[in-house]
Design goal:
Layout lengths: L1 H28 L15 H23 L1 H7 L8 H19 L6 E4 L3 H25 L1 H4 L2 H8 L21 H11 L3 E3 H29 L1 H9 L26
Antiparallel strand pairs: 1-2
């Protein structure tokens, strides 16, 4: 029963995540959701800035703290290890749901693209960014990244195994295609409002900080292998960044981004 309960919990957490992800696409784009980033009655600017910044900060703190190995070592003394990742995913989804619910719109435009063709291209680039995020998760291990693999292996009484270091496809071009996809999704906006700009700036700052924290953990885990990979492959923009040296060792497998 405990193994079955873990399986149900992991599946439910994944379901909440996937619905939240789909809503996030509509929220950022103001498309097809009850409340987009610019929808609703505008609050006083100071009030909206405070509330929205707190909501963004809550997500950033939750996401960063729960992803750190030191926290996981403590947390798994309370939460069974097989549902640790599912719990992380669930908490991150709930933090985003709170943000969508309590977001205070600031609809004053920073820029508006008048050309229908240019606006359509920007909207397409934003949606392509979301697609890049999803595809990149499958290139590594989508179901492990979102906790389903862990609960399924526990149900089957099989070990999870050690993290692997792989560089499939896009990961040979940029080290963080998932984050690149998010940046495309957030910044490719035909209409950039004050609220959308705050969201884009805050999430960009979080991504840059998150990359530093994540790479620190990966270096601690894989040492010279990841150092060589970091020297060889650009961080976010293909062609901008480090180049491989002949003395670098060959790349080894890459783990799911945490």
């Amino acid at each position: 029963m405990a193994r079955f309960a873990s399986l149900l919990y992991g599946g439910a957490a994944y379901g909440v995540f996937f619905l939240t992800f789909l809503y996030a696409v509509g929220f950022v784009s103001n498309l097809g959701v009850p409340k987009g980033i610019d929808d609703g009655r505008a609050a006083p600017l100071a009030h909206a800035l405070i509330v929205d910044t707190l909501l963004l900060g809550l997500f950033a703190i939750q996401h960063s703290v729960m992803a750190r190995p030191a926290f996981k070592r403590i947390w798994t003394k309370i939460v069974p290890s097989q549902i640790e990742r599912s719990t992380f995913v669930l908490f991150a989804s709930l933090a985003l749901i709170l943000l969508f619910w309590q977001w205070r719109p600031m609809p004053a435009p920073i820029w508006t693209v008048e050309s229908p063709i240019a606006a359509g291209l920007l909207q397409a680039a934003s949606l392509a960014g979301w697609g890049l995020v999803l595809v990149s998760t499958f290139l590594i291990s989508h179901f492990e990244l979102f906790g389903l693999k862990q609960v399924a292996l526990h149900w089957l009484r099989r070990p999870t195994g050690e993290p692997e270091f792989r560089t499939p496809s896009l990961y040979r071009v940029v080290r963080h295609p998932i984050y690149l996809g998010f940046l495309m999704a957030f910044w490719a906006a035909p209409v950039m409002s004050e609220g959308h700009l705050l969201f884009a700036l805050a999430t960009t700052g979080y991504i840059l900080v998150g990359i530093r924290l994540e790479e620190r953990d990966l270096i601690a885990m894989f040492g010279a292998q990841y150092e060589a990979y970091r020297r060889r492959v650009a961080m976010l923009v293909p062609g901008i960044g480090p180049r491989a040296k002949r003395s670098d060792p060959p790349l080894m497998p890459f783990p799911a981004e945490r």
